[in-house]
Amino acid sequence: MTEERERARRPGGRSARVRAAVHQAVTDLVAERGYGNFTVGDVAARAGVADTSIYRRWGNLEALTQDVAITRLTEQSPIPDTGSLEGDLRDYAAKVARDVSGPDGPAVLSLVVALSTAGPDGARARDDFLAERTRQLQVMLDRARDRGEQPPDTLAVLDHILAPMYVRVLFGAGPLDPDYADTLVDHLLALHAAPPPAP
Amino acid sequence: MTEERERARRPGGRSARVRAAVHQAVTDLVAERGYGNFTVGDVAARAGVADTSIYRRWGNLEALTQDVAITRLTEQSPIPDTGSLEGDLRDYAAKVARDVSGPDGPAVLSLVVALSTAGPDGARARDDFLAERTRQLQVMLDRARDRGEQPPDTLAVLDHILAPMYVRVLFGAGPLDPDYADTLVDHLLALHAAPPPAP
User: Fold this and answer.
1) Which CATH superfamily is B1-59 part of?
2) Hey, where are the domains in chain B?
3) Which CATH class is domain A3-59?
4) Pfam families under this entry (chains A, B) (predicted)?
């Protein structure tokens, strides 16, 4: 089978391939130059497509980078369903640690952060991402409650699992190995089992 | 006394005033437009100084924004010395919560994050900031150890005090009131007093 025919059989075909190439080009350019330091022309050249294809599909660079950030963050670290709260949290924390410390992790996270200072549209895209991720986490925590477990709330997962990993990546501080992800889950479970007394 | 003479007596004089005006202009522009969406000319117009003054002093926009990010983050949230570890942590957490949730907080944090994808110079500036802040925190934790207390390490302060607040601001998630800052300190002290058992 020729490479051309193999490509043609992939789900989504040419349109999906263009989208994937453009998304990867944006991620690479953010990693190499930082958000704000490249143009639609740079993305097109890197992805091997015409500028007009990008303008027709996304309208402008801001809309394109928002699409990349939301898509990458939503597709990565899918929510697990292992049958127990502890199993779900350990599986999820390990996935997040692997994704955010991978080659594209810092660039994707930085994109989301850049959105938050990129005006109302950027803030809306960031809020949409957070709402979607919160909804996914809530499904996992609701399952635990239905089994009779006592889950933490989604903000506690953000504060004690996601935030430490995000900040370690963004600030280049400390390792993000599987043991570290497990320790964060230990801490969340310990805090939730025995909350500190009110002051 | 004329306003002119009063100004002249301020520490640093005209040079310090120009620096403060330029720093505030950068912070405002990051908040309004996002990092990467303004020029040296925009900063000069906003600060009421000549473009050449900025080029002479800082060289280029990247060096200027690095100076702003490091200065703002280093000057805000000074390390307290209250006589006890708990007092120091509560005071410090309250200051950080106030600073990062203040009008310039998100812009300054976003600047630091933008640095981390702005090439080797940006990463170096970010690492310098983290090293300086870690050194300051270590002084506070060493004082606790000298008093016979059992302090956490600086990474635990980053993970459980600073990270949750930074991420809530950056992602626009949840409130950052004084009670929340106190709860984070409660959690850190509880974790450190009774670490979870090894798996």
Assistant:
1) Homeodomain-like (1.10.10.60)
2) 1-59, 77-199
3) mainly alpha
4) TetR_C_11 (PF16859), TetR_N (PF00440)
Q: Which residue of B has its CA nearest to A134?
A: B173
Architecture of the CATH domain A69-193? Orthogonal Bundle (1.10)
B1-59 and B77-199 share one fold: no
Q: CA of A169, closest CA in chain B: separation in Å?
A: 9
Lookup: tokens for A91: 């599986």
Please identify among residues 165-184 of chain B the ones whose CB lies closer than 8 Å to any CB of chain A. 166-168, 170-174, 182-184
From first to last of its 199 residues, what are the pLDDT tens digits of chain A?
A: 444 444 444 556 888 899 999 999 998 888 787 777 789 999 999 999 999 999 999 998 888 988 888 787 777 778 899 999 999 999 999 998 988 887 777 777 777 777 766 667 777 878 887 888 888 899 999 999 999 999 999 999 999 999 999 889 888 887 888 899 999 999 999 887 754 455 5
What's the complex ipTM?
A: 0.77
- From the number of C-beta atoms within 10 Å of its C-beta (0-12, 13-18, 19+), residue B56 rates as exposed
- Cβ <8 Å between A113 and B170: yes
Q: How many CA atoms lie within 13 A of A184 on its CB side?
A: 32
Residues of chain B with C-beta less than 8 angstroms from the C-beta of A93: none
| Nearest to B117, CA basis, from A107, A137, A100 | A107
Number of cross-chain residue pairs from A and B with Cβ atoms under 8 Å apart: 152
Which one, of B15, B30, B12, lies nearest residue B69 by Cα? B30
